[in-house]
UniProtKB/TrEMBL annotation:
PROSITE patterns cross-referenced by the UniProt entry: HTH_LUXR_1, HTH_LUXR_2
SMART domains: HTH_LUXR
Pfam families, per database record: AAA_16, GerE
Record flagged with keyword ATP-binding: yes
Residue stretches in coiled coil: none
Species of origin: Streptomyces ehimensis
Protein name: LuxR C-terminal-related transcriptional regulator
C-alpha cells in the first residue's frame, strides 16, 4: 500500500501537525476529501498507523457504510464500541445505552454532551485519534454529533480524522465542521510521473513494454491509484489493449462499474455516462450541452447554469476508450439508448454534422457500416429519419457507399408517409445497384407493386427500367415502361415516359429503330419541355446512319441547350446532347455537360438514372479521346471496382478503362479487364456497348501485332453497328481499323475498299478527327505517292482537332512512309515529333501510376529501361528502325531546356519577335530560330502561344512528373 501514498506528502504533513496539536491538548479535526479511488482510506490508515506506533495515540476506528446510513447513532455506536472494547465495557455512556432512535432536540443535546464528556475522559488517560472513514455514508444524527464534537475540540487531546467522498457540489456538505478547529485537504489525482512509478513497480519487462504499460496507465486511469492497480492486474503481456475485451481480467471494469452502480451520485452517474457516450461518438460535447445530455435521471435534478461540466475530473478519465467501455458496460441498455437519442437530438438542434447525429442514433463509429446485429429502435421521429438520410448523402459524397446503404436501410424502418418511403427506397436502390443489381431490381419491383397511383408508379418505373438496362435486360425494361405508361392518363407524363423509354431502347437494335420512329412523330407534337430529348435521339440515329454532318447536328443541339427541359428528362437530354457534342469533337463542352450532372469521385453516379448512364460513357470517352488516360481510370475505376458477380457488366466503361490502361503501358491489366466480360452475353445482346468492347479489343490486338484477331473483332464490331443502322465512323471507326489490319495481312485491295467507304462517311460527318483517321487508313491501303499525300493531309487535318492519339499514330505512319520513300530526314523529323508528343501526352500529372492499380509492363523489345506507354514504345521502335542514333537519357519538357533555350523561350513567351530576341541577346536570327526549334520539340508544342503554359514546371518538364525516357535523335 505504500505506493498508493505517492504525492501525498502534503496531506501527511498536515496530519502530523494536527496530531501534534491534539497531543498537546489542543484538539483538531482533519478531513480528507477525494473522489473514489484516490486513496483517501489508505491515507487515513497510514496516519492512524503512524500516530498509534510513533505518536502513542489511541485509535478509535469506524468505517461508515450505505447500508447503515438510515440507523440513528450508527456511527457513534461504532466509535464507542471501540472505546468500550478497550475498557472492557459494553456500548454505553455514563451507564446509559446509546439510543437507537432519533431523539427530540433537547434529548439529542443531552446525549451529544454525554458522548463528548465520555470521549474527553478517555482522552485524558491517553490522547485519542478518532478515525472515521467514508463520513458521507454516516447516518444524519452521527454527522450532527461529529459537528458537535468538532466545535468542542479546542481543549481536548483528540484528533478527529475524517474521510469523505468528493461530490460534484463541494458546498453541499451536510457535516458542519468549524474552520477554527480544523481544516480539510482535497486529494488530487496522481501526476503522470507517479502513475508511471506505480506501473513500473512490478516485474521488469522490456523497455518498450514498460513504456507502453506506463503510458496506458497514465491515459486510462486519470491519476486514480485504485484504477492503476486494477488495470495492472488485468494486463496481459504484449501490446497495450485497444478494447476492454483485450484485458486478461475484469478488475479495471469492475472498479469503474462499482463506482457507477454504488458510489456515484445520480447526477455524477448521468454525467459520467453522458461523457462515455459522447466521447465514444464522433465529436465531444461542450459543457452546457453535456449537462443537458446528462439530465436524464428520474429525480429530475438539473445542473445550475454556472456548474462546471466536470467538477469531479471525469472528463480526463472518460477520454480513454477503455474507461468509456467500462462505464457503458455498467449501464442499462435502455438507459444508454435514451442517452444516445438525447445526445443525437441535442446535436441535431445545435446544427452538428448529420453523420455525428446518425452515429449516436445507431451507436456506430463514423465511416463504418451500421451492423445488422445492432439492437437499436427504429427512428420514431422525422428529425431522426432526416438525419440518417443526410448522413447517407454525406457518406455517398465521401465514396462510402456501404455506410450510406446501411443508414438508408435503417431510415426505411421508420413509420413513413408513402411518398417519403418511395423517395428513400429509390435512393437506396441507386446505391445498391453497382454492388448488387438483383437486390436493387427486387427493391424497385417491390416499390412499383406497392403503388396503385399512376403518377407514383411513373416515378418508380424509370429507375427500375434503368436498373434493368444496366443489368443487360433491355427488353424487360421496355416492357415495364410500356406497362406503366399504358395506365397513365396524363398526356404530358405519357410523353415523358415514352421519351425516357426511347433513351433506354438505344441498347437494343430492334427497339431502337422503333423508338426513333416514335420520336420523329413525337418531336412534332411534344410539349416544349419534352421536345429537346426527342430531337436529340432522332439526331443521334441520323448521325449514326450517315445522313447528317456535324455542323447540321450542332444546329439542332446548341439552340436547345438553352431551352427549358422537363426536370424528369434533364439528364437524358444532356446525355444525348453530350454524345452529339463529343462526336462533333466539341469535347470540352461535352465534358462540361457530364460534369454538371455526375458526382465527382469517389462518389458513384446514380445508375438508376438512364441519363447518367449515358453521361458516364461520354465523360469516359471524351477523356480518352483527348489522351487524358489517367483521368479515365481515376474517374471510372471506383465504379468498376464496386461491381460484383451479381452486379453489372458495363462493357463500354470496361472498354474505356482498359484502353486507358493499355495506352499507359498496363497491357496485362487491360487484357484482364476485357477478359472479365462474358462473350456469350455479348453475342445475345445488341447493345451498342458490346460493339464498343469489340472495337477496343481489336485496337489492343493491333497494338500487339495480332492482325487476324484484330480484323475479326473489327468486322464483328461492324456487323453489330450495321444491325443498328450505324454506318458513320464517329464512334467506332471499325473500317479504318480493319483496313490497317488487312494491309498488315497483305490484302491491300480489300483494305482499300473499306478505307474509301470510311473516308466517304467521314467526309459526310466532316470533323477533323473522323476525316483524319479515315485518311490515315486510306494512305496505308493505297500506298506509294498517293498514300503519302493522304497521310500528309491526315496530319494537317488532325492538327486542327483535339485528337492527340490519332495525330501521333499518323505522324508515325507518315514518318515511316517518308523514310521508305527515301526522304529519311523529314521522316525522322515526323518520328521525333511523334515521340515528343507521346512523351508529353503520357507525362504523369496529379495522378501517379501507383494510384491507378497497375504498373507499366516491361518493354519486350527495347534493351533500355522499361518505358510506359504504347505510343512512346511505338515511336521509339520506329525511330530505331528508321536509323535514328541512340543518345543519352534525357528528360523532356521545360527541365530539358538549356540556359540559352530557356532565355529565348521566356522572351518569346512575352511576345517578342525573333528579331527582337536576337537584338536583346546579341544573337543572329538564325541562332534564335535554331534554339526555338529545339525548344518546341522538347516542350512538345507547335505554336508560340503555347510557350507560356510550358514554363515554370507547367509543362511536361516538371522533374517530379517527367519520365526519364530514352531519347532517340
Amino acid at each position: 500500500m505504500r505506493n498508493v501514498l505517492l504525492e501525498r506528502d502534503e496531506a501527511l504533513a498536515e496530519a502530523a501537525r494536527a496530531a501534534e496539536a491534539a497531543r498537546s491538548g489542543n484538539g483538531r479535526w482533519l478531513l480528507f476529501r477525494a473522489t473514489t479511488g484516490l486513496g483517501r482510506t489508505a491515507l487515513l490508515e497510514e496516519v492512524a498507523r503512524r500516530e498509534a506506533t510513533v505518536g502513542g495515540m489511541r485509535v478509535l476506528h469506524a468505517r461508515c457504510s450505505p447500508e447503515e446510513s438510515a440507523f440513528p447513532f450508527g456511527l457513534v455506536r461504532l466509535i464507542f464500541a471501540e472505546a468500550g472494547a478497550g475498557a472492557g465495557a459494553g456500548v454505553e455512556v455514563d451507564g446509559e445505552d446509546i439510543p437507537f432512535a432519533d431523539p427530540p432536540a433537547a434529548e439529542e443535546q443531552q446525549t451529544f454532551h454525554r458522548l463528548v464528556a465520555s470521549l474527553a475522559r478517555t482522552a485524558a488517560r491517553r490522547p485519542v485519534l478518532v478515525a472515521v472513514d467514508d463520513l458521507h455514508d454516516a447516518d444524519a444524527v452521527s454527522r450532527r454529533w461529529i459537528g458537535y464534537l468538532a466545535r468542542r475540540l479546542a481543549g481536548l487531546p483528540v484528533l478527529l480524522l475524517l474521510t469523505e467522498c468528493l461530490t460534484e457540489y463541494p458546498e453541499k456538505d451536510n457535516t458542519a465542521l468549524p474552520g477554527a478547529t480544523g481544516t480539510s485537504v482535497t486529494l488530487r489525482p496522481l501526476g503522470p510521473a507517479a502513475v508511471a512509478r506505480l506501473a513500473l513497480a512490478g516485474p521488469t519487462r522490456t523497455r518498450k513494454q514498460d513504456a507502453d504499460r506506463a503510458e496506458l496507465c497514465v491515459r486510462a486511469c486519470a491519476g486514480n491509484p485504485a484504477l492503476v492497480h486494477a488495470l495492472l492486474a488485468d494486463l496481459r503481456e504484449g501490446p497495450p489493449p485497444g478494447r476492454l475485451s483485450d484485458l486478461a481480467g475484469r478488475r479495471y471494469r469492475d472498479v469503474i462499474g462499482h463506482w457507477l452502480r454504488t458510489r456515484a451520485t445520480p447526477r455524477s452517474r448521468r454525467l459520467s455516462l453522458a461523457m462515455a457516450v459522447a466521447g465514444d461518438g464522433p465529436a465531444p460535447l461542450g459543457g452546457r450541452l453535456l449537462h443537458e445530455a446528462a439530465d436524464l435521471g428520474p429525480d429530475g435534478h438539473n445542473a445550475p447554469a454556472d456548474a462546471p461540466a466536470d467538477a469531479l475530473g471525469l472528463g480526463l478519465l472518460f477520454s480513454h476508450p477503455l474507461a468509456r467501455e467500462a462505464a457503458l458496460a455498467a449501464a442499462e441498455p435502455a438507459e444508454l439508448d435514451a442517452l444516445r437519442r438525447r445526445i443525437a437530438r441535442l446535436l441535431d438542434e445545435q446544427g452538428a454534422p448529420a453523420a455525428h447525429v446518425a452515429a449516436h442514433l445507431l451507436h456506430i463509429e463514423l465511416h463504418t457500416e451500421p451492423r445488422a446485429d445492432l439492437h437499436t429502435d427504429r427512428p420514431g421521429e422525422e428529425w431522426m429519419t432526416q438525419s440518417l438520410e443526410d448522413a447517407a448523402e454525406d457518406a455517398v459524397r465521401g465514396g462510402r457507399t456501404d455506410e450510406a446503404t446501411g443508414l438508408l436501410r435503417h431510415a426505411l424502418t421508420a413509420p413513413l408517409a408513402p411518398a417519403r418511403r418511395a423517395g428513400l427506397a429509390l435512393r437506396l436502390a441507386a446505391l445498391e445497384l453497382p454492388h448488387s443489381a438483383d437486390a436493387c431490381i427486387r427493391r424497385l419491383r417491390a416499390a412499383l407493386e406497392l403503388h396503385a397511383d399512376g403518377h407514383e408508379r411513373a416515378a418508380v418505373a424509370p429507375a427500375l427500367g434503368a436498373a434493368l438496362v444496366a443489368r443487360g435486360r433491355t427488353d424487360t425494361a421496355m416492357h415495364v415502361m410500356r406497362q406503366v405508361g399504358s395506365a397513365v392518363e396524363d398526356d404530358e407524363l405519357v410523353r415523358v415516359l415514352q421519351t425516357t423509354a426511347a433513351l433506354m431502347a438505344s441498347h437494343d437494335a430492334i427497339a431502337w429503330r422503333n423508338a426513333v420512329a416514335r420520336m420523329r412523330e413525337l418531336a412534332a407534337t411534344a410539349p416544349a419541355t419534352v421536345e429537346p430529348l426527342a430531337c436529340g435521339l432522332v439526331t443521334e440515329y441520323e448521325a449514326g446512319a450517315g445522313g447528317l454532318s456535324a455542323a447540321e447536328a450542332m444546329t439542332r443541339v446548341l439552340p436547345r441547350l438553352k431551352a427549358p427541359v422537363d426536370p424528369r428528362l434533364r439528364t437524358g437530354w444532356l446525355g444525348s446532347a453530350a454524345t452529339l457534342l463529343q462526336w462533333a469533337d466539341r469535347l470540352d463542352e461535352a465534358r462540361a455537360l457530364a460534369d454538371e450532372c455526375l458526382p465527382a469521385p469517389p462518389a458513384l453516379p446514380d445508375l438508376t438514372d438512364i441519363g447518367q448512364q449515358c453521361l458516364i460513357s461520354v465523360r469516359a470517352e471524351a477523356a480518352l479521346w483527348v489522351g487524358d488516360f489517367r483521368r479515365v481510370i481515376a474517374e471510372n475505376a471506383p465504379l468498376l471496382d464496386a461491381r460484383t458477380a451479381q452486379g453489372l457488366r458495363m462493357p463500354h466503361l470496361v472498354s474505356m478503362v482498359a484502353l486507358a490502361h493499355h495506352e499507359l503501358g498496363h497491357r496485362a491489366h487491360a487484357r484482364r479487364l476485357v477478359a472479365t466480360l462474358d462473350e456469350v452475353s455479348a453475342s445475345a445482346d445488341s447493345s451498342w456497348e458490346w460493339n464498343e468492347l469489340r472495337h477496343a479489343r481489336a485496337h489492343m490486338h493491333m497494338a500487339e501485332g495480332s492482325w487476324q484477331a484484330a480484323l475479326d473483332d473489327y468486322l464483328s464490331c461492324g456487323r453489330g453497328q450495321s444491325a443498328r443502322d450505324f454506318v458513320s465512323p464517329v464512334a467506332t471507326p471499325w473500317r479504318s481499323g480493319a483496313a490497317l489490319a488487312l494491309v498488315r495481312l497483305g490484302q491491300p485491295a480489300r483494305a482499300l475498299d473499306l478505307a474509301e467507304e470510311e473516308l466517304r462517311h467521314a467526309r459526310t460527318w466532316g470533323t477533323p478527327r473522323a476525316v483524319g483517321r479515315a485518311l490515315r487508313a486510306h494512305g496505308a491501303a493505297v500506298g506509294g505517292r498517293r498514300g503519302l499525300d493522304s497521310l500528309h493531309e491526315a496530319v494537317a487535318v488532325l492538327r486542327q482537332a483535339p485528337a492527340p492519339v490519332e495525330l501521333i499514330e499518323t505522324l508515325l505512319d507518315l514518318g515511316q512512309a517518308r523514310i521508305g520513300a527515301g526522304n529519311g530526314r523529314k521522316g525522322r523529323d515526323d518520328l521525333h515529333e511523334a515521340h515528343t508528343l507521346a512523351l508529353r501526352l503520357l507525362a504523369p500529372d496529379s495522378i501517379p501510376d501507383s494510384a491507378l492499380g497497375s504498373e507499366p509492363d516491361p518493354d519486350p523489345v527495347s534493351d533500355s529501361a522499361p518505358v510506359a506507354g504504347r505510343l512512346v514504345r511505338a515511336a521509339e521502335n520506329a525511330l530505331r528502325t528508321g536509323g535514328a542514333r541512340r543518345t543519352h537519357r534525357v528528360a523532356m519538357g521545360s527541365a530539358a531546356l538549356t540556359v540559352a533555350e530557356r532565355r529565348i523561350v521566356e522572351l518569346a513567351a512575352m511576345g517578342q519577335t525573333n528579331a527582337e530576341i536576337g537584338a536583346a541577346l546579341h544573337l543572329a536570327r538564325r541562332t534564335v530560330e535554331t534554339h526555338l526549334t529545339n525548344a518546341y520539340r522538347k516542350l512538345g508544342v507547335t505554336r508560340r502561344t503555347q510557350l507560356a503554359s510550358c514554363l515554370g514546371g507547367a509543362g511536361t518538364g516538371n522533374p517530379s512528373a517527367a519520365r526519364d525516357m530514352t531519347a532517340l535523335a
